[in-house]
Structures are given as C-alpha cells and as structure tokens.
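step 3/5: co-fold with glutamine
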Amino acid sequence: MGAYINRIDQVEGTVDSFLQVLKEEALNQAKAADENKDDKTSPLFGIPYGLKDNICMEGVETTCASKILTGFIPPYSATVAEDLKNSGAVVLGKANMDEFAMGSSNENSSIKPTKNPWDPSRVPGGSSGGSAACVAADEVVFALGSDTGGSIRQPASFCGVVGLKPTYGLVSRYGLIAFASSLDQIGPITKDVTDCALVLNQIAGHDEKDSTSVDREKEDYTSYLQKDIKGMKIGIVEEYFGEGLQPDVRKRLEEAVEVYKSLGAQLVDVKLPTSDYALSAYYIISSAEASSNLARYDGIRYGFRAEGFDDLLDLYKKTRSQGFGEEVKRRIMLGTYALSSGYYDAYYKKALQVRTLIKEDFDKALSQCDVILSPTCPTTAFKLGEKSSDPLEMYLSDIYTVPVNIAGIPAISIPCGLDEQGLPVGMQLIGRDFGEKDILKAAYAFE
Ligand code: GLN
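step 4/5: write tokens
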C-alpha cells in the first residue's frame, strides 16, 4: 500500500486521476485486514484500487464530478464496492470522470481534467478517464469504471490498458449513480487480461437489489485464459475499417488480424448494416433516460442547494442552473425534447426501433463468429481542448463502442501497439450475450 501511496504523491500532480485520495482509510483498512483472520487467499486481498466517482461508497463523498452533488455522502455502498471489500481489495481513491459520465475526454469534470499519463498534454478519454489514468500511471493496481456508450473502453484504449464492458445485467448496478439505466454497466479497468478476469470474478453475479441483474451460475473467468484459440472464428466488419479511421490505427488493427491468423483463428466477414444509425439512436435514448434520471437533483434531496431563492420553483431553477455543467444541461434538454409529446414517436420511439435492428444485426453476425474484432476508437488520444468546443466531433469518438451498449452485449478493449506518435492504440473484441469467456480468451491469446 505504501508503495502505491508514494507513487500517487509522485505523479498525481501531473495526472490528476483522483477527486479524493483515501490514504488514511486505505492504510487502516489494509492494516485491519492484515490483523484479523480474514481469508487471505483471495487474489485481490490487500490490492489497492480506484473507484469511479459515480459508484457509491458508504461515508465517502461521491459527486459524479458534478457541483450539484457536492457534499453528498452516500449512506450505503454499491454492491460492487461491497463485493470487492469482501475480497480484501482496498479503495485508494475516488476517480475523476466527466460530469455524470457524459463525455469522452474527462474535460467535462466540474473539478479538473485528468491528463493522459502517456502525454499530459492529451486527454485520457472518458468518461472513466480518471479510472483508466490511475491504472496506466500505476497509482493503483486496477479500477472500476462505468460504460454507457464506451466510457470504459475508450479511455482504456487512450491510456493503453485493458477495459471490459460486461453484458448488461451481469454486474449489479446497485449503487451506481444512473446516467442511462438501460445502457449503464460497471466493469474493470486493469493492466492485463488476467487481472480483468480476476476482478470480473468478484463483481459478476446476481444481486436482488438490482432488478435488471441476471440470475445465472457464477463462472471462473480465469479458466478461459488459454493461448490455444485454433479454429476460433473472428468476425471482421468491413464498414468499421472505413472512412474516419486514423491510418496508423488501421495499420495496427490489420497487424492484429495477422496475429490472429497465425494463431490459427479463422477470419469471417460479417455485416452490421444498421451500425450507421447507432450514434443517433444512442444520443436520443441515453439523453432521454438521463433527463428522467437527473430530475431528482432538485436542491432538496442531495448535495448542492443554491442560495437566494424566492420560492420552491425558483430554488429548483437556481440549483439546477448553477449545479449542472454545460454538457449535462445539453443532454437534459435533448432528452426532454425527445420525450415530449408530439416528438416522442418521431425520436424516442424511432430510436428504440433502431435499437431492435442493431441487436438483430449483432445476433446474426455473432451467429457466424465467436467474437467481432474492431477498433475501439477511430483515433488515439487527442489534445486537451482539441474537441471540447464541438460536441458532435466529441460524440464521434464513440462510434465503435456505442452499438455494443445498445445491443447489451459484452466487449473488451485491449492495447494493440502504438501509433506513429508513440500513443497507445486500442482493439475492441465484441462477444455474444454472456460471451465474456470468448472475448477474454481471444484477448488473452493476443496479449
Ligand atoms: N462518451 C459517451 C457519452 O458522452 C459515453 C459515455 C459513457 O459511456 N458513460 O455519452
């Protein structure tokens, strides 16, 4: 623990991964665990980790990097935080993020932007940018992030680490502050695929406190980590390698395909024709859900309350105007508009129909192969400020990750070499519903 705290002291000033470092608490927890008779055979025993600041931890301020939640101290812990505590893992910091998980660069944090440990003039990705950066910078051994449209995989790709978005329903969302409930999933960000499987072992499983949690038998994900993938079918989607993809990202991906061939995998061409509409559908569905989920921040129940109000309505208005950042307000307005009568059928209902088509496309494609290989993101990490004034440009960063959330299926991002500037490139492997075993196996063989 001491070594990690020293490391945080060294690099945190440059990277800014954390909103809070829990040095004392972590040392006490580690000491207590050492002294009592807990089961010390758990592979995560005593391991320090970072917890994204939209995941509740009892007694520790949890803000989603938003002014509106300043001072909110949850009276309970998320199920994932409980699970990790039971395995002996120790939270060393609450990781920075884009406000309410809305963003792809961490620049929407209302507190400070996290920097990419590979080059601090660049973004770490988002919204789990703090979680990816603290792992990449060796401030912790692993972190938990959340992924609604790519927020685990895109920052993992930008920071050269492993990030997994599990199948919807595999990991409990209880205690995760909701952005878009039908898309959100918590998942691990780690240095390698073995760690990813170890963390997933702890956090996957049925939870009656989350009505969307799926009741299925527990698996040992480490048992799928074998190098032999002969005969495994890997799907390639031609459209995913088209326009807009940075040329050296394409090159690294093509090299990865060659590696898979040499390992005896069989390449299969598959089609995902409705993917073109995924981004539009995502921004309607996620904003609609966000506008409803974020209605609860009224200045009465949580955190921040504006001063100097005339009446109750004025209190709501002032609190929400001052408490939410620009991007969050944009999403609330988009969502409210898409759900309003007269527009509901034209936008929200259409987006749900597109969602069904996207899921059908994936089901078909994944009946022809075991996993689909794609880039995680069209580019490597961009410069701070480069896209922050153009939301549409920023949204395009999620073009390969968003369809996966819409379909509810699992996907992992793993490092796949460096671009010409020496920045990490990410490769995404997408699996069938509960096909974590296949993507972990394919990822491990490549590593
Ligand atoms: N970048 C996407 C967005 O801004 C995805 C966010 C996420 O997965 N939480 O909505």
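step 5/5: annotate
The pocket of glutamine is lined by residues 101-104, 127, 147-151, 179, 286, 398 (CB under 6 Å).
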